[in-house]
Amino acid sequence: MENLPDILYNHVKDIFPIFRSITGRGIRKTLGYIATRVENFSIYHIQSGTKVLDWTVPDEWNVYGATLRRTTGEVMIDWAWYNLHLMQYSIPVCARVSRKDLEKHLYWLSDQPDLIPYRTSYYKKDWGFCLSAHQYAQLTDDEYDVEIRTELGPGHLSYGEVVIPATMTAGDEADEVLFSIHCCHPALANDNASSIAIAVEVIRALQETAHRRLSYRFVFIPGTIGSITWLARNGDRIGRIRHGLVMSCLGDAGKPTYKQSRQGNAPVDRYAAYLVQTRWGGKVVPFEPYGYDERQYCSPGFNLPVGCLMRSPNGQFEQYHTSADNLDFVTPEGLYASFGFIMDLISMMETDFYPHSLAPYGEPQLGRRGLYKAIGGGDGDASPRPAFDQMTLLWVLNLADGTHSLMDIAQRSGKPFPAVAAAAEALTLAKLIAREPAQSVPMPAASSVSPDGTSVQ
């Protein structure tokens, strides 16, 4: 039986060869792959020409072949050799061109001579070939035959979505967590196949979880135009999004990098920063209006609490948007660690709340509720340590005034969040705190003491 790291990596291997773009057969095939592995997965098709916010859904693009040949017929570049050889959204061409004119349509990396770059021209009609510097050096003839067999015309933009409803809150009342995954890049294992693979298994794990306080929505979209289209079509749902995360570049060996939302101190920002600082290492970087789809969700009109999780950040590793972002660059271990980080993040989202004390006058008597150790002593006793200690209980009780979340309590007390959450659960079961404030919490009746030492009410 496969273990989860291998399952994740095999998803990447399956997805990697599919020739994806922002529209067309490749992205639909990728969505179809997800649909066969995830329950209740829906695929939507939006017609070309549809207005979405300030944008328009583009024509659909499909590829049937592309070659660059010497006039003798010798093939120098063939899209069939490697998906990245053809610039995305190249228009159809069948012509003999001079070497000088060809130069305007060639893309290579002089500082990485063995690699093929990834280039696009989604919104400008153009064509081009991407090749290694070594291949470029072999193009010494005066003329070449270009044949690009593409189809660009009215069609659809496709995206996929799955909603996992809350089980402990009425569906129309539950806060929602938005996960966004772009799935439009061909032959790039880290920059997008890794996130698709991880998202599939996170969905499966959530669907198998019996108790969920939050609702989860996963959207698999083409970059930029996909998130803009989703936002344009889902304005009525925006107000329910409590947390959000864009997933990208999650399969390499780098430590986690969390990019904050525009808000900067949203709960998801605090949870991710806490995990980075206390468990997973890595770094937190501030929001900037560049990168992946977080910049659409965080545009000022929406200003959603959506951050971005990566390992090596986009544009900051030498394999980025090149043929080196291949199946050798991602690892089962890197994929599994990213999966673990996201599941930890979800656990914090599910667990955190603002506790309200039901016994706020003085410290409640913990002993008669089984929450105080029977024999006092130092911290050096030999008994196994519980999930939380006495001080964690006392911190939760003292800060349970409805203005401090469990995250606040963990940070102020210096106690681990899981310990604070466990203490809060024990106090809830003992009816000492609650998620919602009581209508009124009366102060216990006063008593006096008579001269003989007896208590008088």
UniProtKB/TrEMBL annotation:
Residues 357-434 form the UCP01524 winged helix-turn-helix domain. Residues 9-352 form the DUF4910 domain. Keywords: Metal-binding, Zinc. Binds 1 zinc ion per subunit. One of its GO terms (molecular function) is metal ion binding. The keyword Metal-binding applies. Residues 60-151 form the DUF2172 domain. Zn(2+) binds at residues 185, 191, 321. Its cofactor is Zn(2+). This is DUF4910 domain-containing protein.
